[in-house]
Design goal:
The complex is a heterotetramer, with 2 copies of chain A (351 residues) and 2 copies of chain B (314 residues). Chain A is α/β, with parallel strands linked by helices and 351 residues long. Helices cover 39% and strands 17% of the residues of chain A. The longest helix of chain A is centred in the middle third of the chain and has 17 residues. Chain A starts with a strand and ends in a 5-residue tail after the last helix. Chain B is globular. The chains are: A alpha/beta (351), B alpha/beta (314). Chains in contact: A-B, A-C, A-D, B-C, B-D, C-D. The complex binds thiamine diphosphate (2 copies) and magnesium ion (MG) (2 copies).
């Protein structure tokens, strides 16, 4: 097959460019959207091309920013809002949960507030407790929002377009920092939405965002070393979860690992376990294994970060644990800590 | 906007009638409240109607208005449909929101009532965003947002004044100052002068001391709206007024130990509705008939059913 | 046994009174704490007795209110903060999640911010979408806060004292509006914390806040009509859930109903299912039954409210569903809709 | 506070030394950054040190200070322990927070550095609350809070000015105005005059145009702090200054197309540290030795272990 590479970052830029170019009513607003860094490069050049009445540099005032987006949407425009860290969105939760999520419902369908909100989540370089949080669970608990976590350049591109063309309410795209520099072979596969990212028969790994890539890395490792066949599901949409795809997989494997960037407690992992147990009660042969950060704030020191952020090494461990009754590290190949660390530094695709 | 070509006394009568109509509607709501046909909180504007009446008289149908849980007067003054409102208050499926909104969240897209929120201060940024939309669209739409004096405590108010002035948005901020936040005197929680605060943003500020005077309010609003429509940026209208009734519900808060009857009487003595029996007589039966009809409509409408519970979510 | 009745409301007032009287450094702050309504009567008289340098009427500015409480706590005082609706707390989530919850951890234990936050949740009289939300899941997802949902006057009293004397961080008490007028026989039982509120052998009902009372009502009904024996667990603490008490019960019953005031999606129900499946994998004989509001904003019309808020009638239904293979409404006694409705209007204890 | 009895030139030398020390520490941090021993973002105050130095010189050890992610200068000026800070930056268990805080969250309870937050504006209410505590306690403690000019965009800033003035709290608001929010000119996002805004709250406002002049800053701070300590309520100190380096990291942002080299040179020309080689010579080796020692301490310390990950949570 042909190859064409695109970074996640460039995919975000291209997708926003397309929305701005194809729909006159699209407006981009956020802190740093017009600066020389351009939200990890994703907004570079847009203000120059579309002008300062399409692209707005915003004050440091997140509550009003979200409310202004609602007003723009109510009055006929389609706002795209950016947050350089999802942590800052906690300042606008009142607008998002008490207004945006409810507008359509509470007015009985009279009003709708379609919009796209992009927010950056996740690790890298000692971001610490206030610059690294994954808030998908909070945004998904309350009805009314659509929350997505695109795991690839292709997913992201399709999702932005879907948000614009098909969704009648706010869509929140949570984008993992480390993904921006990863590149993807966009000719390779073109999944959109919840999808099986790798077919397999022994164990099901349900993953979100960058954890999809971690899961694929783990799947490759255990296949190479022990011919274990993992099915990897890219959950993609966190609200209104596509549980059938998981249930179908469990019918084959009866074993599940859930890998998410957020806490398991009241998180995606808990919600998935609920859905699996409610809709596929007898399918699980063993308790689910969960790969998430432990329940503490993010520590800054890299010495602690390595125990905090879940890695593909941990997924490998869980795979063995589920499949091998008396798992023994000495007989089964484990990636060394440095192998895992290197994979982050060096290998950025193409996937 | 047709008001401009009618003569002064017609204009007075128009605004008088509009104020009286809202007063009577809310009095009726209060009087039937004990019947439990309205099973949700009501925040009445009785005493404050002139603010909405005066400002909305100067807005066109295409102009937009945003409000609060205390929204009946605004909704009606902006031209919202009385029947749809009454049915909504009664929780009926014929209400504008099929019963999902109730009294705290009035809206009518046909006349630009863009929503009322029960979170203090939260529609101020919506109006600011709608103003930005109008500016980008390049039409001459004006956006008005109504809020209480205590809503100005919220940080988002500051954030919006900043954004509105920065982009010279066509927004009229209308502060209905009844001096009260529920049962707390605003003075006990507020340490700034609105005039100075608003002026610090280079936003034009005007105060109306007598919030019963709908003509004066309309005149002030007219000047502001004309300038805003010309692209001269946001303005602020601060109207001092008095809510005769308690914060929520149909009763009074006199006797609670916060406000005195004398204070309310002082305002009532300035209230045109109490000073012109002839005009009241002229309009009252027509108004009452309209209200009767709306209540009948509400009464005879159906409630929403279980199947509607999960509609219009996302 | 002797009887002594206390309303939930009076219990809150008495407990705060005790904290103010016994600890000089206790400060009460909130909107309406000094007004003649006094947060459903729970703060009446306190400003008169303790003065305006212990009890502060606050501006309508929730973000700063939470931050001011943090500052008070850092500088040697113990703040009690009130929110007349939990919905308004969404305006202060940045302070709660990004600061209060993390302060102790992020400074490596150098600082602590003990405080008590009281917030009112729940139904009554057409409160609608912005005045009725249960936010326990959001507050519990992020590590660092302690979230409780006292179900009785006794629970509340014990919890406030525990917060003050034992907890080193912020404790958030979510209090259901309808409970305030309920009265409890405080001589009757004196549970504190997670507890079995009624012993039984057929089915386990895990409940929070007012759902504990709903569960007890349902338990009584099915016992009276069909001698079904329910075990009711008052979960009480939502963070750091006491799962052993649930597991122990499931060892007897193998059936579970979860009843919570918040959405099941990413909610308490999901978290409980996760914990049960992880820690008691083979205990469940059937899929769990869940009693929560459906996943939509709260509608205002009482015609819709009745389908939205979960009632004890619904719990009765779930009990039958779990215990009776071919459940048929005609042979099993169901409380009529009006019986359920009456129980809310008339029966306010003592419990 | 001992400064008051020493003579003028001693005072100058003291502040000069303090500023120079911070400058050298941050320059060293910048120069070793490439070695990856500090694996987290650093927001340097190079060029802005005089603000912290001037204000903190007038605070006692019992007074409190709150800051931001750009906290090195404040931490050091308030008397924070250099070794504990360096170890913290290196992610070591000997750091003041055992490595959990890093550069963005400096704190030292021994000298009243009460925390630095990476959420813009978020320590302003903490300082306000700490000020309320001081007022209730009835001691003469003063609370200072340092923030950038763009943090004043946040609504919570408005909320805190209101609360502080309402209760006449002993809070000194210190605005370090470097005209920049990351790579955005503050003027592009701000539409109010701080002087007028602050004055609308009846909060005493003072501006220092030359933020390099630590003596002038200290004098201004001294007058304010004296009044605040006497119970005269909150004050606001607005210091214009210049960050020579980029927003985050050890480099420069000249060439990014936002700020010019000329602008930075203009400020540097006023910088006492560049104008008094003799004083630099007098202090530099002592300072360098202290820094060497702190880096050695950090280098030779242990990293925290897995067992510490779940400590001190709730
Ligand atoms: C964010 C938020 N905090 C608190 C409340 C409770 N509350 C409802 S109305 C009100 C007072 C508002 O006063 P003002 O803005 O002057 O409006 P008024 O009711 O006088 O019209 C308060 C505190 C709320 N609804 N929203
Ligand atoms: C709530 C929030 N929004 C956005 C950011 C991203 N951010 C970090 S620093 C900064 C600029 C702050 O400028 P200013 O307050 O002037 O402080 P300076 O960095 O110039 O010292 C921004 C927007 C943040 N950290 N927190
Ligand atoms: Mg008011
Ligand atoms: Mg700045």
């Amino acid at each position: 097959m042909e190859q064409e590479y695109l970074t996640y970052k460039e995919s975000a830029r291209r997708s926003m460019h397309a929305l701005l170019a194809n729909f006159d009513d699209t407006i981009l607003l956020g802190q740093g959207v017009s600066d020389p860094i351009g939200i990890f490069g994703t907004t570079l050049g847009l203000i120059k091309e579309f002008g300062s009445d399409r692209v707005f540099e915003m004050p440091i005032a997140e509550e009003s920013m979200a409310g202004i987006a609602i007003g723009l949407s109510l009055n006929g425009f389609y706002p795209i809002q950016t947050h350089i860290r999802a942590d800052f969105m906690l300042l606008s939760l009142n607008q998002l949960i008490n207004s945006a999520a409810k507008y359509r419902y509470m007015y009985g369908g009279m009003y709708e507030v379609p919009m796209l909100i992009r927010a950056v989540i996740g690790r890298s370089w000692g971001q610490g407790p206030q610059h690294s949080q994954s808030i998908q669970s909070t945004l998904s608990h309350f009805p009314g929002l659509t929350v997505i976590m695109p795991s690839s350049a292709q997913q992201l591109e399709a999702a932005y377009l879907e948000a614009r063309e098909k969704r009648r309410g706010p869509v929140i795209s949570l984008e993992h920092r480390l993904l921006y520099d990863y590149s993807f072979n966009i000719r390779d596969r073109n999944p959109a939405g919840p999808t099986v990212a790798r077919y397999g028969t022994d164990v099901t790994i349900v993953a979100t965002s960058i954890m999809v890539i971690e899961a694929l890395r783990a799947a490759e490792w255990v296949f190479k070393h022990h011919q274990i066949s993992c099915e990897v599901i890219d959950l993609h949409r966190i609200t209104n979860i596509d549980i059938e795809i998981v249930i179908d997989s469990l019918k084959k494997t009866s074993l599940v690992i859930i890998a998410d960037t957020g806490y398991r407690e009241f998180g995606v992992a808990a919600e998935l376990v609920r859905l699996i147990v409610e809709q596929g009660f007898s399918l699980l042969g063993k308790p689910p294994e969960i790969v998430t950060p432990p329940h503490c704030p993010t520590p800054t020191s890299h010495a602690l970060e390595q125990f905090f952020y879940p890695t593909w090494g941990l997924i490998v461990e869980k795979i063995y644990k589920l499949l091998i009754p008396k798992f023994d590290v000495t007989t089964y190949a484990m990636p060394s800590r440095s192998t895992v660390a290197e994979s982050y530094l060096q290998f950025k695709g193409p996937f | 906007m047709t008001l401009k070509i009618i003569n002064m006394s017609d204009r007075y009568e128009n605004l008088f009638r509009s104020t009286l109509r809202i007063r009577r509607i809310e009095e009726r709501i209060a009087s039937i409240y004990a019947s439990d046909r309205i099973q949700s909180p009501i925040h009445l504007s009785i005493g404050q109607e002139a603010v909405s009446v005066g400002v909305c008289a100067e807005l066109s149908k295409e102009d937009l208005a945003f409000g609060t849980y205390r929204g009946h007067a605004l909704y009606l003054a902006k031209g919202g449909d009385l029947r749809l409102m009454m049915a909504e208050l009664f929780g009926k499926v014929t209400g504008f929101a099929k019963g999902k909104a109730g009294s705290m969240h009035l809206a009518d897209s046909a006349v630009g009532v863009m929503g009322c929120s029960a979170i203090v201060g939260s529609t101020i940024p919506h109006a600011t965003g709608a103003g930005l939309a109008a500016k980008i669209a390049g039409n001459d739409q004006v956006v008005a947002v109504f809020f209480g004096e205590s809503a100005t405590n919220q940080g988002v108010f500051h954030e919006c004044l900043n954004f509105a002035t920065l982009h010279r948005l066509p927004v009229l901020f209308v502060c209905e100052d009844n001096q009260m936040a529920i049962h707390t005197l605003n003075a006990d929680i507020t340490g700034y002068s609105l005039r100075e605060l608003v002026s610090a943003y280079s936003i034009k500020y005007a105060a109306v001391e007598n919030g019963m005077d709908f003509i004066h309010i309309a005149n002030r609003a007219q000047s502001s709206i004309t300038r805003i429509r010309r692209g001269e940026g946001p303005e602020f209208l601060h109207v001092h007024t008095c809510r005769y009734v308690q914060h929520v519900g149909p009763g009074t808060d006199v006797g609670f130990g916060v406000r005195s009857e004398a204070l309310i009487n002082k305002w009532m003595a300035k209230d045109p509705l109490y000073l012109a029996d002839d005009l009241v007589k002229k309009f009252i039966s027509e108004i009452n008939a309209e209200i009767d009809e709306a209540i009948d409509f509400a009464d005879s409408s159906e409630f929403p059913g279980a199947s509607q519970l999960l509609e219009d979510i996302s």
